[in-house]
TrEMBL record:
Keywords: Oxidoreductase. It comes from Streptomyces flaveus. The lineage of its organism: Bacteria, Bacillati, Actinomycetota, Actinomycetes, Kitasatosporales. This is Oxidoreductase. Belongs to the nitroreductase family. PANTHER family: NAD(P)H NITROREDUCTASE YDGI-RELATED, NADH DEHYDROGENASE_NAD(P)H NITROREDUCTASE XCC3605-RELATED. Residues 17-66, 80-158 form the Nitroreductase domain.
Length: 202
């Protein structure tokens, strides 16, 4: 078990427990066409309200124009590490349903599609790191995104590299224990704030 594996009260599927968001990616790794299409299929087959599929994605492979344009939109902290990833994929959501009415659940659906993509990356032995730290207006302009679509995230995907290849200021964050709010402060029953408690000692 990797030291990055989630410390869960009981076992969860290894794909979920072992997924994490690294910063150290292998700059020599390239993704196969089959792996790439597998990632895109995982996102495409996400569920969505009324099967509206509000997501669209812009896909860049390291070295191509799309990748360079996506990389240029990243905030400086993300530019420190994300350029070694094999892929940068922007998730963009429709803001309206096809009949023109506002689609209030669109971001929920599109986030779910990215989650599926991230888990599929892990299933392929790759890693994914989502980023909200980018300039959405720059992304809109540089890649021609229409007004009724909104960029939500850019995800770096690639093969893991050693933590000590990172700049010093990022190294410690790569190995620190992953943490989450406790179950009892997250899951409620009989009213807001009352812990939903369940025996989990076997
Ligand atoms: C929508 C979203 C935006 C994020 N934005 C950034 C970001 O801009 N830069 C970054 O380094 N990590 C970013 N992250 C990664 C989170 O910091 C990370 O998922 C969280 O700390 C939990 O760590 P884990 O994914 O390893 O479990 C983002 C994650 C999500 C889901």
């Amino acid at each position: 078990m990797s030291p990055r594996t989630a410390n869960t009260a009981v076992a969860v599927h290894p794909l979920l427990a072992e997924r994490w968001s690294p910063r150290s990616f292998d700059a020599r790794h390239t993704i196969t066409d089959e792996q790439l299409v597998s990632l895109l299929e995982a996102a495409r087959w996400a569920p969505s309200a009324h099967n509206s599929q509000p997501w669209r994605f812009l896909v860049g492979r390291r070295g191509d124009t799309t990748y360079q344009r996506l990389f240029a939109t990243l905030l400086s902290g993300n530019r420190l590490w994300a350029g070694n990833s094999s892929l940068l994929i922007a998730a963009v959501t429709a803001e309206r349903l096809e009949n023109g009415t506002p689609h209030h659940g669109a971001a929920y659906d599109t986030g779910l599609a990215v989650a599926q993509l991230a888990v599929q990356a892990h299933a392929l032995g790759l890693h994914a790191h989502q980023m909200g730290g980018f300039d959405p207006e720059q992304l809109r302009t540089s890649l021609g995104i229409p007004d009724d679509y909104r960029p939500l995230s850019v995800t770096a995907i690639g093969a893991l590299a050693a933590a000590d290849l990172l700049p010093q200021e990022l190294r410690d964050r790569e190995t620190v224990a992953r943490e989450r709010r406790p179950l009892a402060e997250t899951f409620f029953a009989e009213g807001w704030g009352n812990s939903f408690l369940v025996r989990h000692d076997g």
